[in-house]
């Protein structure tokens, strides 16, 4: 199969969809990889390293997109939609529940859209989201700590406090991969950390893992309101796979926070869990203020640490790309139920139920389209 790797064009998105090591793996299996010139530079990979691994370097995005399968990191932006063609296999993060226009174009052009974030193993875990959630969770605590500093617009407190001065309160809503990793760093930085989740099993796991260094609470509107009001930093880390994020923190709750507090809404890629995080921000201009509270709502947080993130992402995506390239997308999906769950659009239909429901579109079971 011919596989294209365009340079990412989102604001400060320095990740790339493959490393030279990934190219070599695909090449050794008999595939051709076409990397847009300088696509890897932001992650520290030169054209020459890709060439050494067996890639061909192409000079334009158009050439990188004109392949059987395109691997990317972020969802395509409108200026990339013209590259879509019928039957193109697009393997990337898509977050379609929050992208009605992109979904419409993928359907109209009959692109096969396989979303990293909905590939799901039998145990419910999301293997192609996990490493980026680990990165974003760890960043969320660091970023929250930075924006609590006065020169960054925050109230001017240190997460750990000092002897004689109390620690900051950090609330994490959603105790999955992002939440757990945010907690690791926030606890390490000395904060008083509370995690809320809807799943009693998950709360037990967190309690067993962190012991008395965190507080756990059941996620319900009353507990969320109480925790948010007392928090210096609130991190949004909820996911219902494929679906638009539920707005769990209302505007009234945010109004109860003290001035200079910080919200880091990691779940913004699925629409965000705060009523007040109503738009995404960028690495260039990462925060906006509502009711005196700083909101950080960057949808590609790992793009800020591209070297770590690119290697972490491609460690998990390349084995799936290899299956698609070796067998074609249909056989690969039939042979691997986890990959089948990644299929979001095929032949002009939405094949992921939560996306179809969220956007009010017809849902078709992918298996029906394979016959
Ligand atoms: N902004 C960015 O750059 C990035 C964003 N993300 C996003 O972060 C979000 C979280 O991802 P993961 O931690 O990997 O998901 P996950 O599936 O590991 O965890 C989600 C957690 O939310 C919990 N949950 C569901 N409904 C809840 C509710 N009403 N109240 C409290 N908890 C609830 C679930 O029980 C689960 O523990 C996703 O939207 C993901 O796409 C991930 C990486 C980068
Ligand atoms: C998960 C995602 O959207 C990201 O890593 O940018």
Automatic annotation (TrEMBL):
Q: What is its EC number?
A: 1.4.1.1
Identify the catalytic residues: 95, 269
**Which principal EC class is assigned to this enzyme?**
oxidoreductase
Domain Alanine dehydrogenase/pyridine nucleotide transhydrogenase N-terminal, chain residue ranges per copy: 4-136
Describe the location of the Alanine dehydrogenase/pyridine nucleotide transhydrogenase NAD(H)-binding domain by residue ranges.
Answer: 148-297
GO molecular function: any one? Answer: alanine dehydrogenase activity
Keyword Iron, does the record have it? no
Where does the chain bind NAD(+)? 133, 197, 202, 219, 238-239, 266-269, 298-301
Keyword Metal-binding included in the entry's annotation: no
Gene Ontology cellular-component annotations: plasma membrane
Q: What biological-process terms (Gene Ontology) are attached?
A: L-alanine catabolic process
- Give the reaction(s) catalysed: L-alanine + NAD(+) + H2O = pyruvate + NH4(+) + NADH + H(+)
Q: In which pathway does it act?
A: Amino-acid degradation; L-alanine degradation via dehydrogenase pathway; NH(3) and pyruvate from L-alanine: step 1/1
Keyword annotations? NAD, Nucleotide-binding, Oxidoreductase
Q: Which Gene3D superfamilies match?
A: NAD(P)-binding Rossmann-like Domain
Pfam families membership: AlaDh_PNT_C, AlaDh_PNT_N
Residues binding substrate are: 15, 74
Q: Which family does it belong to?
A: Belongs to the AlaDH/PNT family.
- What is the protein's name according to its record? Alanine dehydrogenase
Q: Which organism is it from?
A: Ornithinibacillus bavariensis
Taxonomic lineage is:
Bacteria, Bacillati, Bacillota, Bacilli, Bacillales
